[in-house]
Amino acid sequence: MNSAVDASTFLTPALQSRLPRVGMTIFTVMSALAAEKGAVNLGQGFPDFECDPALPEAVNQAMKNGLNQYPPMAGIVPLREAIAAKIGALYGARYDPATEITITAGATQAILTAVLCCVHPGDEVIVIEPAYDSYVPAIELAGGKPVLVQMALTDAGYAVPWDKVAAAITPRTRLLILNSPHNPTGSVLRPQDVATLTEIVRGTQVLILSDEVYEHMVYDGHRHESLCRHPELAARTFLVSSFGKTYHVTGWKIGFVAAPALLSTEFRKVHQFNVFTVNTPVQHAIAAYMADPRPYLELSAFYQGKRDLFRAGLKSSRFRLLPSDGTYFQCVDYSEISSQPEAEFAKWLTCEIGVAAIPVSAFYDTPKESGVVRFCFAKKDETLRLALDKLASL
Question: Which of 47, 161, 217, 327 could anchor a disulfide with 378, C-beta 3.0 to 4.6 Å?
């Protein structure tokens, strides 16, 4: 007779971590604290409202139609063609859907795959801080060396210090990671930024990873300066975007990378072994949904309304509002309210005031204190008003 075996009685071999400095993310910590305290969660960046009902219905229909087996490794042709047409119409860039567009399991997989396909041990990768938290771990997994350049924070908000970026480039620099519209600061690249960037990389072998997942959230008449608008930059760029952000379905984890054929060939070599391909019925649903451009063309106005509602509600508080020209995030300086470190202030805000935020210090490889926290306004208006009622007294 066999008896149950207690695996804990046996030795588990020691394991050397590939990411020894990585622990539980601040987003997980703050969301758990918000749930525990019953706080309004303006921390983690996802909507609390539903997507267009036509989208899940299209997925359901695709499944009923038998579209449930593996799609092509690079993604279904209709979706790649729809993406190429959209990029051409919006930005005037031409990508061959057969060889230059790849469907990914969200933007984070796209970022990791882009890094792994071009960064070799010892290569340097420039990262602009504060930065999305997957960049540095992706570089370290590839054996690369992150070279960190910190954005300047002035009364006018956050800006990329291009002189420091230029000074950071060495013969070992393989990749520069940019993000615009920028998470967490809400800043966006301007035409002069793009012109300066072009001068910096001209004549070098530096590749660019352009994280543009918030491309359809740009406010106050500013234009999204996608790097694919600029042929000289597009020739060396992996452009990353996300349907989850655009269509309010972050849990679907589907995005894409557009890159020149030479770069896409190497990208796909890695892609086929770290995910192979992406959910078939969702691809078909999004391809059909993209026939109507209004959902993404109207997204800036939709989120600007929420941004303006949130900013207006904080004007009577002691928070100092930093510019929010893009994304669905609003950063605030709380120095007139508290001298606590950012992580402690965010916890106090959650526990005592009942609103969760994210400390911007968490977006630095080595936490940097600026007295700034980030709120997410991708929420129902009633959620925002509830949060504002709690925050207005500060």
Answer: 47
